[in-house]
Amino acid sequence: MSDIITSLDHDFFKHLAPSKDNTPAIEDLLLWRHAQKGLSCFYAPFDHVNQDAKIVIVGITPGRTQMNRALNTLQTGLVNNDTIDQILKNVKQQASLSGSMRPRIIEILNKLGYAKALNIDCTSSLWSENNYLVHFCSLLKYPVFIHDKDYCGQPALFNSGELTQLLHQEFVKDLATINPDATLVPLGEMVANVITILRDEGLIKQRVKTHQNKVIAPPHPSGANAESISLLLSEQFPTLVDYQQSMYDSYLNKQSWSKKKNTKPQSEDNYKKARASRWYAVSNIRQAYGISNQ
Length: 294
Prior knowledge:
By secondary structure, the chain is α/β, with parallel strands linked by helices. It has 2 domains: 4-221; 234-288, no CATH class. It has 10 helices and 10 strands. The protein has helices at residues 10-14, 64-79, 84-95, 101-111, 114-117, 161-175, 189-200, 226-233, 240-254, 268-288, and strands spanning 30-34, 39-42, 55-59, 134-138, 144-146, 149-150, 183-186, 207-208, 210-211, 214-215. The longest helix is centred in the C-terminal third of the chain and has 21 residues, at 268-288. The termini are far apart.
């Protein structure tokens, strides 16, 4: 499927109506659907591979926002009679981790020291003048949806034949062509777990950050991980006890549970256990990257 763009009618893409970030997937671009599991996969032009990259940033799958921005970039390039190679490079540059995720991932990468490691002022330039240094990609190269929502890891990737096939036919195949001296940065625990399995199978040649023999991944830059991102970026890393207590006090003050029907606040014990899990996970990331927890 990696050369699918060469077999499609370019006039079809030229005449697509401009998409908004929340525009539903186009049925004509459906690659496959598993109705029983609620899974569907659609083509979007994320085909460019930067084989000379020094850093490889790996997400789960392009979401709806990225899919639509990719199609808009493709359409603009075709209308302007740009070459397919240039268009696909532009798609990766414009659409990868676009939307509200991009400011978050820039902050994360800067905090982890990648600007210094790449000898650039700020990792925001990976989407502009220093785009040649990076390969943006996803475990699932083309947008996958579960019940028409962005796929976020359930059902488990290796429990679906279609997802496993997409992983191996696209991501693994592409990665084999990329500079083995590059550093691979998985985004989120789910991606880290898949990378671990592939590495154990000898399918990952690039360098991966580890801590205590475990692949380390910074939080995925989605809004759902705001707590972990905030904790990672904090200048003064709190003690576990202080963090649990301050978060619990804030939780009680906000009374967010009261907005839901027939719900009650979590018990203090359960709430603090969840915060401890988050705190330890972020602490490990900071330690792996040499960020002081003092």
